[in-house]
């Protein structure tokens, strides 16, 4: 018995790390059910070197109940972990998946969020449900795209145009969020940035369309439609966040920001 | 909120001193928001304010505070955190839509009792968004006016959208509303007059509102119209600011007239800058 204890002592730290690695194998490749229970101390890791994952990523119960966890196969599928991440969605153990999967998942999320924000949606009025799975990739792409388009089509000071548009949009989104919070509303900072960024999508489309045709009338019409669409998309989120006596105070700056950007799109030659 | 104005007005009239009295009327001091961050000073009035949780160590280490646990003066290691917390700025945005529109109307009516009305509740919403609107309006209308005057001439150079107008508009307006009241506040303190920096910011911010319609009217291509419009707006705005300052400091200091003239002059200078930079067009030569 003492021998067993000695062996347990010597192999405890190594076997913890190997347990964790084995759990990764199990969650990522559900077919591999065979799990080594005791490990020789001098074993080299068979997988390519990975970022060492510290124990707190998994719930401590996994580490503490070491042997029991192995007796039954761990359920396949995503292991809920306590890692920080985007709002709301399932937390995947995503370190070991191929990049293609990550990109696909992020793009899908951007598309879903875009659909939720920009198209008619029964949950628009409810800020709790409106954009549960918010992310910041979408807004980032839209802001960069708009700034690039406007900068590309400008005839002078291209880099300054890019800088001004980018600064206006990003600082504007932050200031708008702070505005709602200061007026007494309660919104999540990054969720609000996310919504305001997604609402830029119609203006992006209009900037692209304006490249095609250069007449002022056509541009004015396109920009007007895009403005109306953007404002319609952003309005419910902002107006439901503040007390009703201050609704106009919260909504007006949003309109101001989109009109500013719309004017920049319109006036670009 | 309208009721609060009525009570303030009656209170204010009662405090106008007789000529023999040498004490000035501390209108600026009425606001509870003088101390910043206000969360640490006026707990009783603002129950919805956030207070950062008090460290247990702090209450233990300072025996004087033991029983209070957070009331009274917080420890020195906590006061600076208020500056970084968005919620401690909330009292300065405690206005409803109807309040903001009332204040804007007062500025258009050139109401010299404006500071008295807003001394209890100066808001930063108005100044900030009026400045932002003004930046956008002058930059875009300046470009539009340049475009129209380029179009109206049969021969002409080349017109391009001047993005510099937007960044310089931001610099001019935010700089003016940010720095001039601050300088005035320090000047008044130097001269021994108590004043409130937030009330001054509120005053200057709302005084700029009249430039927004003036910018819209300055789009017409006739110089004389532009001069008239911008001149009228500058005068209205300058009298608004000067009148309010005069009301506040007339009894406080012998040099009040010089200060009032100084504020009026800087305001007129702003109007001039607006006219010359945004609404005067030089023909861009063909490139």
TrEMBL record, chain A:
Chief location bin: Golgi
Location relative to the cell: Golgi apparatus membrane; Membrane
GO cellular component: Golgi membrane; trans-Golgi network
Record key words, sorted: Membrane, Transmembrane, Transmembrane helix
UniProt-annotated stretches for the region Disordered: 1-21, 68-87
Keyword Transmembrane annotated: yes
Alphabetical GO biological process terms: endoplasmic reticulum to Golgi vesicle-mediated transport
UniProt biased composition (Polar residues): 1-15, 68-82
Transmembrane segments: 136-154, 161-182, 188-210, 217-238, 250-267
Domain (Yip1) ranges: 131-263
Entries under Pfam families matching the protein: Yip1
Similarity comment: family membership: Belongs to the YIP1 family.
PANTHER family from the UniProt entry: GOLGI MEMBRANE PROTEIN YIP1, PROTEIN YIPF6
Protein known as: Protein YIP
Chain's gene name: LOC112288794
UniProtKB/TrEMBL annotation, chain B:
Chain segments carrying region Disordered: 51-74
Localization per record: Golgi apparatus membrane; Membrane
GO molecular function, one term: small GTPase binding
InterPro entries in the record: Yip1_dom, Yip5/YIPF1/YIPF2
Record field: compositional bias (Gly residues): 64-73
Domain of life, per lineage: Eukaryota
Membrane-protein topology: Multi-pass membrane protein
Pfam families (UniProt xref): Yip1
GO biological process: vesicle-mediated transport
Positions of the Yip1 domain: 115-273
Membrane-traversing stretches: 127-148, 168-188, 200-218, 224-245, 257-278
Keywords: Membrane, Transmembrane, Transmembrane helix
Keyword Membrane (UniProt): yes
A GO cellular-component term linked to this record: Golgi membrane
UniProt record similarity statement: Belongs to the YIP1 family.
Name of protein: Protein YIP
